[in-house]
Amino acid sequence: MTALAPLAGTPETPPAPESGAGPGDGAGPGPGSSGRPGRRLTPYWLLLPAGLWLAVFFVAPLFYQASTSVQSGSLEEGFRVTWQFSNYSDALAAYGEHFLRSFGYAATATVLCLVIGYPLAYMIAFRAGRWRNLVLVMVIAPFFTSFLIRTLAWKTILSDGGPVVGALSSLHVLDVTSWLGLTGDERLLATPLAVVCGLTYNFLPFMILPLYSSLERIDTSLHEAARDLYATPATTFRKVTFPLSLPGVVAGTLLTFIPASGDYINAQLLGSPNEQMVGNAIQKQFLNVLDYPTAAAMSFLLMALILIMVSVYMRKAGTEELV
Amino acid sequence: MTITLSGISKTFGDITAVHPLDLTVPEGSFFALLGASGCGKTTTLRMLAGLEEPTGGTILLGDDDITHLPPHKRPVNTVFQNYALFPHLDIAENVAFGLRRRGVKSVREQVAEMLDLVQLGDLARRKPRQLSGGQQQRVALARALINRPRVLLLDEPLGALDLKLRRQMQLELKRIQTEVGITFVHVTHDQEEAMTMADSVAVMHRGRVIQLGPPAELYENPRSTFVANFLGTSNLFEAEILSPQSTLGPRAEAAEKGLKPVEAGMSAEGETPERAETPAVAGTAEVSEGTSAAEVPGETRVKVAGADVTLRLPTSRCAVESVEGAEGVEEGRKILVGVRPEKIALLHPGEAEAVPATDNQLTGRIKDAGYLGVSWQYLVETPACSDLTVYEQNVERDTRLTAGADVVLHWRPAHTFALDAAQDAAAGEEVL
User: Fold this and answer.
1) Cβ <8 Å between B135 and A10
2) B319-358 tens-digit pLDDT
């Protein structure tokens, strides 16, 4: 190989780096173009509906909640903004356990979703052939039923004396989970396992779909190239397929973890007071205790903690240089 | 490494992609599999790479049976059609991929050397998407060559490049192959690419190799209409064998009729004296062609269908197979006569006496004259074929040769070939 001379004359040069004219200044034709002045406003008109929607249903409530979270007073005397930041520390002190439990359950459910969803997405993307669309529809099919109904159905499935409990009990699976502290008293309902299972079930499609879409984009000739270059099937997955599916992994885990952290339906229907998540606590403060400032402070705390965790995660995942 | 395919075949469901195929690729050769898309050439290559399991047959690499070896265990590397560079790895890591998989610890030096070879050393840290098509192509080549495979497989490696770059890379690939001495098996649908680079070309059609040989032999002596049309251009017209053996027979009458159109545009009388010098069979000017009717051993004479024109060609260039009821080359057998456009010379009828007496000759009228730069392309209407294509080098063009002009066409019998008429005369014409 050393005897080889360099390839002769290579006229083409690498593509020039993107010039500064990015999409940022894309609001209409540049100076000197002969477009009508009205056309310069077109992008803003197009943004208007979404902007209004966000302003009315997101920004305004956000500010309202922010102000609520630093109010003090009572329902009878009325709440006033007194910049009472102790609402936050009090909420954290009283419900720290709920926060931890929420993130623990959500993280466990996310990992389970990944473990269950990745092989499925892989099969759909590379092996399903003509069944691909059918399987995709089956993945999405649960969405045709309401979230609440589906969770209620799980309540029936996992009910005491039901077939699932019976089967797992006779297989001594419940003994193991009980020993792990996930279940107790020979039952599934009102255990952490039930809540995590409910979360996993409910958010699985949010994991599968982004995974599928990133796997499906991978050119299968890359697999062949890897195998041609002495990679075993396992190495091919480790070095080529998985790195290339990372955008889907990141999107799927975020789409699962974030809503699961704030979920309270699963804990409400499948758990007991011992499995209450932060969502349950917020709901209770808002609707039962009517302590709006504490509820608002907890909402903001949840939002802030999720933001912190997500940005740390994104930074970690970003080092892989996502394609 | 010599590659030996014995009875190798591949079927996908009901479709047979490759019929049982026997092929030997000699060590160190540049071997091209040429054919239109869907002819089975890529499937054959993929079976060599191990990416496709053969339905039957065996593949030997040297003396080793690699038929059922998975791709990662074969000492064979591939340059893929779309390059298949790993988008998440930079150029250096792409090139190092094969070495790393084989547990080579320090790859840096070899990678740098390889990248210098393909003149991409300064782009080692770029990602593939930041490179142009030609650069990506060279990364793909470097990534395969760095493993020093016994055989390098190239699947339409230049298909995505523009014409100029493709020509340049053709020469580069050929040079690299000569220097490393690795056996190259190259799949392409581009006949020019195959002819430029390969020592040996196998033309594939509908899952079979229909002719195999050095490019010049395939081009000069096609044995089927598919090869005649797929490799370059051929003029094919129907004819009938007159005398397979060297039996003498004057062609005067035939020649006369064949030349009739010429008379309109030339002064036949003026020609007569010169022509008369030759031992003419008959008194007319046109008949002078008949003087060449003297039999040459090993030549076959044929009569063009629909016109009384007799042509001659070496019997060895008659690809007419024996079938039931008909021996190969025998009298009355229908054939297709072929001649390459660049073999034909065009003359103004006024200069027809310059035609060598031994040449095949036709007359016609120019329908269209196209300027191609290096050559002129003429479409000539003749009794033998209504659209005879002729390429004339763009050196000294007779300005009288314009559309509508009468012309005399002539070429050497040795440039004529004959094919079995029982095949589609237009096979292989559809250009991809």
Assistant:
1) yes
2) 887 666 666 677 788 889 999 999 999 999 888 888 888 8
Domains and CATH numbers, chain B: 3-230 (3.40.50.300), 235-420 (2.40.50.100)
| The token pair that represents B231 in the structure block | 């490799």
Mean pLDDT value across residues B400-419: 91
- Exposure b/e, A159-173, CB count within 10 A at least 16 = b: eeeeeebeebbeeee
How far apart are the C-alpha atoms of B98 and B297, rounded to whole Å? 60
CA–CA separation, B168 and B161 (whole Å): 10
CATH number, domain containing residue A213 = 1.10.3720.10
Q: Is A228 domain-assigned?
A: yes
Q: Is B320 on the interface with A (CB under 8 A)?
A: no
Report the alpha-carbon distance of residue A249 to residue B9 in Å, rounded. 41
Question: Looking at the predicted structure, is the pLDDT value of residue B278 above 90?
Answer: no
Query: pLDDT digit string (tens) for B246-276?
Result: 433 334 333 333 433 333 333 333 333 333 3
Which residues of chain B make contact with A11, given a CB cutoff of 8 A? 164-165
Region class of B275: left (phi > 0), else alpha (psi between -120 and 50), else beta: alpha
The answer to whether residue A172 sits within a structural domain is: yes
* Three-state secondary structure of B84-143: CCCCCCCHHHHHHHHHHHCCCCCCHHHHHHHHHHCCCHHHCCCCHHHCCHHHHHHHHHHH
Distance between B77 CA and the closest CA of chain A, angstroms: 6
How does A284-320 read in b/e, with b if 16+ C-beta sit within 10 Å? bbbeeeebbbbbbbbbbbbeebbeebeeeeeeebeee
A260 lies in some domain? yes
DSSP per-residue letters across B205-224 = ETTEEEEEE-HHHHHHS-SS
- What is the Cβ-side half-sphere exposure of residue A208, based on CA atoms within 13 angstroms? 22
Contact yes or no for B228/B338 (Cβ under 8 A): yes
Tell me, yes or no, whether A206 lies in a domain.
yes
**Which residue in B has a C-alpha nearest to residue A245's C-alpha?**
B88
Domain limits for position A132: 101-272+301-318
Q: What's the whole-model pTM score? A: 0.76
Q: What is the complex's ipTM, to 2 decimals?
A: 0.75
